[in-house]
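Q: What does the predicted 3D structure of Palmitoyl-protein thioesterase 1 look like?
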Amino acid sequence: MFVLKLITEALLASPLITHEKSDSRPVVFWHGMGDTYNSSAMQRVFSALHSVKPELSIYSVYIDEDQSKDQQASLIGNVNEQVEIVCDQLNSIIELQDQKFDFIGFSQGGIFARAAIERCGLNVNNLITFGSPHSGVSDLPRCSDSDWFCKQKNALLKRQVWKKNIQNSIVSAQYFRDPLDYESYLENSAFLVDVNNELPNEKNETYIENLESLNKLVLIMFGQDETVVPKESAWFYDQDKQTGDTINFPNTEYYTKDLLGLKKLFDERKIDYLTIDDVHMAIGDDFLKKVTETYLGH
Ligand SMILES: *[C@@H]1O[C@H](CO)[C@@H](O)[C@H](O)[C@H]1NC(C)=O
Ligand SMILES: *[C@@H]1O[C@H](CO)[C@@H](O)[C@H](O)[C@H]1NC(C)=O
């Protein structure tokens, strides 16, 4: 087994952000890998939103109310089960039933948020994802040249990525997708191949209907991302299955075969492509405020 680095930080408990009653659309977050639903990093984000729109109700989903277990679940667990847990959680929040809400996913959390919308038909207005590898990662986060241990670990995980027990337990393996080894992905992916509707005879029309009903899909890419490989996966771009060259969205099968309902969104100009010219998940307050003004609340 390879080694996972766990980041420990001050842990705080309590499932829901305090909020005032208002008729502004609520916002729901799904945090990224190694983070927790109410970490200090997440709280900084909530504050940036509230500095622009104090009336926003903010919810942050969790797999476990205990923050260290929640963090662990972002690394180890079965994503299909996690999506189901979050669907149940969101369906139990009354405020999210009688009005639409906006859903923000950080990194892998953005794919999982999309999966929840596809599968559970949540009442979502805008889906906003930051550096989320929607068309998978074809490589593991790059190691620095001198980091021998990291390289060994990556090589080991890559050899094992399609094993059933890895697909069912290592979160990052569940969105691994190497277009140069596409057959292995089609055969063995336990999660992404389904939510991306890529199985030739098992296209799920519900997923298409649910994504088509979004008001906006906002895809944010980090210009200097070396964690998500290739970084353009955040824009739902693909790679050529022979050459590995980048394919822009209208030339991908997601568009040409309309696998997911994104063709309609794209044609109606409902997909916004934004860039943050920085490394993975380096999000400044100004950017968060801009997102709040443009896409959140009323
Ligand atoms: C996060 O922690 C803060 C400070 O302890 C608390 O006020 C807030 O309600 C918590 N939010 C969530 C989502 O748990
Ligand atoms: C499509 O997805 C929905 C929602 O997850 C599920 O209820 C349904 O069984 C799926 N249909 C097929 C054909 O797999």
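A (community wiki): The structure tokens above were generated from the sequence. The longest helix spans residues 40-52. The beta strands are 27-30, 58-60, 101-106, 124-130, 216-222, 238-239, 246-247, 271-276.
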